[in-house]
Amino acid sequence: MKNQNYKEIINLSWQRTLTVLFRPFRLKKWMFLGLIVIFAGQLGGFNFNFNLKGADKINMQFNAIPEVISQNFALVFLILLAAIAILAIILLWIFIKSVFSFIFIESLRKDEASIRIPFHRNKALGASYYRFSVGFFLAIVFLMGALAAGAFFTKIFFPFILAAIIAFIFIVIISVFVEDFLLVIMYSENTGIKSAWQKFLPLLAQNAGSFFSYLLIKLLLGIAALIIGIALTILGVIALILIGGGIGLIGFLIYSIIPAGLVKLVALWILVVVAVPIISFLAFLARLIVLPIGVFFRLFSIFFLGSVSLEYDIFAKEPAKEDPQKYKKSMAIVWLAIFAPLVPIALIIGAIFLVVPDMAKASLEKTGQPNIQSVIMQKVQPLKQNLIVVHLKNGRKIEASLEREDAESVTLSVKGGTFTFNRRDIEKIERTKGR
């Protein structure tokens, strides 16, 4: 077992990070490398949290759902299509992530940032990693489901909770080993993940202490990186707000000086169409602030593995010479992955438009509460029943709803409020029976 010099490994990783990103600094390279890291899922900081405030105030009777579904085949069809689309998109994105994980390694090794040729060159490696990822995920689901079922049926929770915690720790360690080391071995040897496991396990057994210390060092570095990343993200958000606010102010001023009417409405749509891509691009640039963190940690694992075994030092190996023209193929699958989420979104929106009115109607009917239509009719009917025609002495007549009347005046309810007439000005009142 070799004793690793972590100070040297950290220094090599940092120097290579500076070389890749700042020597020289090129925005185009940053943008391409940022896309690669995002697709590889190694930029970090992406957390989508949907908080439905006031959801507890929604009075929807869900026992109406089966009735609505049974009466609406189109809804069932859209839900099934959306579920299938979401599953297909998840599998597609796992494949994209698998391939881009190797593109990321290759970009750091060659100090370049391109996508098309590396994508097709590493597609076979990505496919091997993809099959393992799907199988590993299904195994985790099965294991956690079995533990949950055991706790539910036996009503003995502590052993199953303890087993779940131990399993979670092992899952995290396996995930780190795969991401940090097996991918590097696969790339270095141009081999599948099964062969990579066969090469890695003896290496792990011979250097168990080194790999354990690596996990501890990475944990400490990760805590420091988290603090730095949060600070950089805050700075990026502030910059985004300032720049986005300036652009929004310019758009508002342009919108304000345009005359009212159709031209103003068209101008509003144009400003929105222009502003959304600009703000999205600025948000992407803001995320690039933490790019050095992702690059450093990828290099840290590569240099560590190279210090354990020179056989897997990818920087010491000369790249194989090959004709890059054979890899200049279509990138349709990547574009499909980018725009595919629009499909289930459209299906879900369609399902919502189909189900909400029917479900609300069925729910209100079950509970005996009046539906929207009956409420409106209850409000409108009294107006029709109290409708009168007031003939004034000046020859005019007014048709409106009677609000109130007394010996001296008559008050009518009209759109926008009420209007009171003195009886001295009224010739006669014609009362209707409703229409």
Short description:
It contains 14 helices and five strands.
What report would you give on this structure?
There is one protein chain. It contains 14 helices and 5 strands. The chain is α+β, with helices and mostly antiparallel strands and 435 residues long. A hairpin with a 3-residue loop joins strand 2 and strand 3 (409-414). It is elongated, with a radius of gyration of 33 Å. Mean pLDDT is 79; it is low at 45-64 and 370-384.
Secondary-structure blueprint:
Elements lengths: L5 H17 L4 H14 L24 H6 L2 H38 L5 H6 L1 H32 L2 H33 L3 H14 L1 H50 L4 H26 L3 H18 L23 H8 L2 H26 L4 H14 L1 E6 L4 E9 L3 E6 L2 E6 L3 E6 L4
Antiparallel strand pairs: 1-2, 1-5, 2-3, 3-4
Question: Which key phrases capture this entry?
Answer:
SH3 type barrels; 2 domains; alpha+beta; 14 helices
List low-pLDDT spans: 45-64, 370-384
In helices, the fraction of residues equals: 55-70%
The outline comes out as elongated
Number of domains: 2
Number of helices: 14
Which whole number gives the mean pLDDT? 79
**What is the oligomeric state here?**
single chain
Structural class: alpha+beta
Spatially, the strands of the biggest sheet line up as 4-3-2-1-5
Biggest sheet details:
5 strands, antiparallel
Helix and strand pattern: HHHHHHHHHHHHHHEEEEE
Strand content: 5-15%
Backbone CA Rg: 33 Å
Per DSSP E runs of 2 or more residues, the count of β-strands stands at 5
What is the distance, rounded to the nearest whole angstrom, between the alpha carbons of the first and last residues? 97 Å
